[in-house]
Design a protein that fits this description.
Elements (H helix, E strand, L loop, with lengths): L6 E7 L9 E9 L2 E9 L3 H10 L10 H8 L5 E6 L13 E4 L8 E2 L8 E7 L25 H5 L5 H20 L11 H4 L1 H20 L14 H8 L3 H44 L9 H4 L1 H24 L12 H30 L1 H27 L10 H25 L3 H11 L5 H14 L1 H28 L2 E4 L4 E4 L4 H51 L2 H9 L5 E9 L6 H4 L4 E10 L2 H4 L1 H14 L2 H9 L8 H4 L14 H9 L43
Parallel strand pairs: 1-3, 1-7, 4-5, 7-11
Antiparallel strand pairs: 2-3, 2-4, 5-6, 8-9, 10-11
Helix pairs in contact: 8-10, 8-24, 10-11, 10-15, 11-14, 12-13, 12-14, 15-17, 16-17
Length: about 725
C-alpha cells in the first residue's frame, strides 16, 4: 500500500463514455488516495456493482482464469471507486467513494474535492492500449534482437587478429574504469513507494481495456437472476434438430478427432526430417579442423548465407509454437510481442528476398550468355589486360618518376608471367562461364541473397592473383623498410634489443659501418620502385575489399532490415513502445464542481514510440566496427609500413544478421517435444511474468482464490 502524502492521484482513461448518464466507477484501489479507473458502468447501482465484484459475477465467461490478471496487476480484488454525474450535488467528500462529473464537451473528468480536505488532486489521463491490436505500454524500449548472445564468442570462433584483440582489451579496461567510478559516485536515493509501484501501474494500464470489455459484457447480470445455462446434452439436441445438422456434426467430429491429428503428425514428421537434414548441413558449415581454425562459413559468403537461412528455418517452428502459446493466456500479457515482431519480420524478409530473387533469376537465366560475355569482358579488361598495361607502364618510368630499371623489369616480368598463366587458366574456364551463370540464376529462386553471395565468392576467386600480388609486394616492401630502419639505427650507433623491445647503444667496427652504409644506400634508392608496385596492388586490393563490402551491405539489408518493425512504426506506433512520458496539460473546460475544488493538475500519460535510432542500432554498431577496424591508427600504420591489413572478422561483420537468432540452436529432441506436446488447458494459476519487459516487485503478490469469477453461471445474482 502506498503512503498518503496529501495527494489524490486518479488514473482516468481518455476513451471512457462522456455522457451525462449516472454511472459507477470501477477500478483498482492501489491505496487510499491512489485510484486506478478501469471503466464506468452506467445505469447500475453502486451497491449492486460492489456485490457483483465480490461474487465474481462481472468476470464470468472470461476466456482465461481471472487470477492471472489479478496477479499481474498486484491486487486481490477490484473496487467501486465512486459515481459519476449524480442528480443531486454531493455534500461531503469521501476518498473511498469519489464523485465525478463528465461532460461531452470535455475530455477530462471533474472530481469533487472541497478545499477543506487539504488534498491536491492529480488526474493522470491515459489511452487504454488495445490488446487485440497488440498495443501496450512499457517502461523499457522493446528489443528487436534476442538477448541471449552470451555465448556469441564461442559461436563465431576466437578473435583472429591483433586489431580485434586490442579492441577487446580496450573494452575490458573501460569496464574496469566504470567499476572503479562507482566507488566515487554519489549514492542514489532509494526509490519511493510510488516509483516502485510504477511497473504494476503500467501492468494495470495494459490490462485496462480487456478487463473493461469483460465487465461490460456481464453488466446485464448485475441485480438480476441469471438463467440456467443449457447442459451439453441439451446443446447437442438443439444443434442436431435436423438430419443435415447431425451429419455435419458427425463429419466435423471425425475430422477433428481422427483426420486432423494424423495430418498434423505427418507434417511434424516431415518438419523434423527437414530439420535433421538442415542440422547435418549446419554441422558441415560449422566444422573446424582446429579450435582456432576458420570454418567454411567464415571463408565463403555463400556458406554464410546458407547457414543463416538454415538457422532461420530451424528457429521458425520454435517461434511459431511460442506464438501459439500466446492464445492460452490473456492478450494483455505482452511477453510474446517481441517474438511476434521478430518472427514476422523474418518471414517478410525471406518473402521479399525470394520475390526479388525470382525476378533477378529469371533475368539471369534468360540472358545467361550475355551476362557471361559481359562478366568475361570486365574480367579480362580489368584483371588481366588492364593489369598488364599498368605493370608495363610501371616498368617504363611512370609519370616521369625515374625508377630502377633492373628491379622494375624483374618485378614487372615476374608479375606479367603470373598474369599470363592466370589468363590461360581463365581462358580454359571461359566456355563453362555461361553454365556457371545459369547455376547462379537458378540459385536466385532461393532468394536474391544467394546470387549476391555467389558473386561475392566469384569476385574473391577471380581476383586471387591480385591478392597474391598484394601479399608479395607488401612483404617485399615491409622487409626492405625494416632493413632500412635497422641500418639507420646503425648510423646512430644503436641497435634494437628484441628481448627487451627497446633501442640500446652499440659500438660498431669500421667494416660494419661501411657495409651498412653501402646496403643502406642501395636499399634506399631501390625503395621508390618497390613503393610504386606496392601502392598499385594495395589500391587494387582496397578496391576489391570495397566491392565485397558493397555485396555484404546488400546481404545485410536483405537478411536483417527491420521492415516489419518500420511498417508497425508507421501503422501503429503503440505496438513498438520505447518508454513512457508524463506531460502536464491544462483542463479544457471548467465545470461547476471544479469551481469549488482546489487546483487540479491534469497529466497526460503516453507511450513513446521506439525511435528510429534504436531500430537501426545494429547498423550503427556495424558502421562503428567497420570504422574502428579500417580507419584505426594501427591499420593505417600497417598499410603505410607494408604489413598485412587483416579483413574484419566475420564474427563482427555478421553478428547483426544473427541478432534475431538464438545463440544456442535447439536440439532435435527439444524440437520434437515442443512440436508434439499437448495443448495446455485454460485453467491454472496466474502468470507471474511481467508485462512490457518489467520485472516483478520485491513485495509478494496477493493471493486470489483459484476459482474466483469462474463459478457456475446458474448462481443467483445480487439485487
Amino acid at each position: 500500500m502506498l503512503m498518503s502524502d496529501g495527494l489524490l492521484r486518479v488514473f482516468w482513461p481518455y476513451d471512457l463514455p462522456r455522457s451525462s448518464s449516472p454511472g459507477v466507477i470501477v477500478g483498482w484501489r492501489n491505496s487510499e488516495l491512489d485510484l486506478f479507473v478501469l471503466t464506468v458502468l452506467e445505469d447500475v447501482e453502486p451497491r449492486n456493482v460492489d456485490n457483483a465484484l465480490r461474487a465474481g459475477i462481472l468476470f464470468r465467461n472470461s476466456p482465461h482464469p481471472i487470477v492471472r490478471i489479478f496477479t499481474l496487476c498486484g491486487r486481490s480484488q477490484m473496487h467501486v471507486l465512486g459515481s459519476t454525474n449524480l442528480l443531486s450535488p454531493p455534500t461531503s467528500f469521501n476518498p473511498s467513494h469519489l464523485y465525478v462529473n463528465t461532460q461531452s464537451t470535455s475530455k477530462v473528468p471533474q472530481i469533487y474535492c472541497p478545499p477543506g480536505t487539504n488534498l491536491s488532486v492529480q488526474v493522470i489521463m491515459y489511452d487504454r492500449p488495445h490488446p487485440t491490436r497488440m498495443e501496450y505500454m512499457s517502461l523499457h524500449p522493446i528489443s528487436l534482437a534476442l538477448g541471449d548472445k552470451v555465448a556469441a564468442l564461442e559461436k563465431f570462433g576466437p578473435v583472429s587478429d591483433k586489431v580485434e584483440s586490442e579492441e577487446e582489451r580496450e573494452k575490458a579496461r573501460g569496464r574496469l574504469l566504470v567499476e572503479k567510478l562507482k566507488f566515487h559516485t554519489v549514492v542514489k536515493h532509494a526509490p519511493s513507494q510510488k516509483e516502485q509501484a510504477l511497473p504494476l501501474i503500467i501492468n494495470q494500464v495494459n490490462c485496462a481495456y480487456e478487463m473493461a470489455q469483460l465487465m461490460h459484457k456481464n453488466t446485464h447480470l448485475i441485480g438480476i437472476r441469471a438463467k440456467r445455462s443449457m447442459s451439453v446434452g441439451e446443446r447437442v439436441v438443439e444443434s442436431a434438430t435436423t438430419l443435415w445438422g447431425f451429419i455435419v456434426l458427425c463429419l466435423a467430429h471425425v475430422f477433428w478427432q481422427w483426420i486432423w491429428p494424423v495430418i498434423t503428425r505427418v507434417f511434424v514428421i516431415g518438419l523434423v526430417c527437414h530439420r535433421s537434414v538442415a542440422e547435418i548441413v549446419l554441422q558441415v558449415l560449422e566444422w573446424r579442423a582446429r579450435p582456432d581454425a576458420a570454418a567454411l562459413k567464415d571463408i565463403s559468403a555463400t556458406a554464410q548465407q546458407v547457414d543463416i537461412r538454415l538457422q532461420q528455418f530451424c528457429y521458425w517452428p520454435i517461434q511459431y509454437v511460442k506464438l501459439r502459446q500466446r492464445k492460452d493466456n490473456w492478450e494483455s500479457v505482452t511477453t510474446s510481442h517481441p517474438d511476434y515482431i521478430r518472427f514476422y519480420n523474418s518471414l517478410w524478409l525471406v518473402a521479399n528476398d525470394v520475390i526479388i530473387g525470382i525476378a533477378l533469376g529469371s533475368y539471369i537465366i534468360d540472358n545467361a550468355n550475355w551476362v557471361a560475355s559481359q562478366i568475361n569482358t570486365v574480367l579480362t579488361g580489368w584483371t588481366v589486360e588492364g593489369l598488364q598495361r599498368t605493370i608495363s607502364w610501371l616498368m617504363d618510368w611512370p609519370a616521369g618518376l625515374k625508377l630502377n630499371n633492373e628491379l622494375a623489369a624483374f618485378l614487372g616480368d615476374l608479375f606479367l608471367w603470373v598474369i599470363e598463366n592466370w589468363a590461360a587458366c581463365i581462358a580454359n574456364l571461359q566456355p563453362y562461364l555461361p553454365h556457371v551463370i545459369y547455376i547462379v540464376g537458378c540459385s536466385s529462386f532461393a532468394g536474391a541473397s544467394m546470387p549476391i553471395a555467389l558473386f561475392s565468392d566469384l569476385l574473391s576467386i577471380l581476383t586471387v592473383h591480385i591478392y597474391s600480388f598484394y601479399i608479395a609486394s607488401a612483404r617485399i616492401f615491409n622487409w626492405q623498410l625494416t632493413i632500412i630502419i635497422s641500418l639507420f639505427h646503425l648510423f646512430r650507433g644503436k641497435k634494437r634489443n628484441v628481448l627487451r623491445n627497446r633501442i640500446d647503444s652499440c659500438d660498431y667496427d669500421l667494416d660494419q659501418l661501411l657495409l651498412g652504409t653501402i646496403l643502406f644506400t642501395v636499399l634506399f634508392f631501390l625503395l621508390p620502385t618497390v613503393i610504386v608496385f606496392y601502392l598499385t596492388f594495395a589500391s587494387a586490393r582496397m578496391l576489391i575489399i570495397t566491392m565485397k563490402a558493397g555485396f555484404d551491405t546488400c546481404l545485410a539489408f536483405l537478411n536483417h532490415f527491420p521492415l516489419f518493425a518500420l511498417m508497425l512504426r508507421v501503422k501503429d506506433s503503440r505496438r513498438l513502445p520505447g518508454g513512457i512520458r508524463f506531460e502536464l496539460r491544462d483542463a479544457l473546460t471548467k465545470g461547476s464542481i471544479e469551481a469549488e475544488s482546489p487546483a487540479v493538475s491534469y497529466i497526460h500519460l503516453e507511450s513513446i514510440p521506439l525511435p528510429l535510432r534504436a531500430m537501426f542500432d545494429q547498423y550503427f554498431q556495424l558502421g562503428h566496427r567497420l570504422r574502428k577496424h579500417y580507419l584505426a591508427p594501427r591499420v593505417i600504420f600497417c598499410l603505410m609500413t607494408g604489413r598485412f591489413v587483416p579483413p574484419i572478422h566475420r564474427r563482427n561483420l555478421y553478428s547483426m544478421q544473427y541478432s534475431m537468432l538464438p545463440a544456442r540452436r535447439a536440439g532435435m529432441a527439444e524440437v520434437w517435444s515442443m512440436l508434439t506436446q499437448p495443448k495446455k488447458g485454460g485453467s491454472g494459476s496466474g502468470s507471474s511474468g511481467s508485462v512490457g519487459g518489467m520485472g516483478a516487485l520485491g513485495n509478494p503478490l496477493p493471493k486470489v482464490p483459484p476459482n474466483f469469477g469462474q463459478g457456475d453461471v446458474r448462481r443467483r445474482g445480487h439485487r
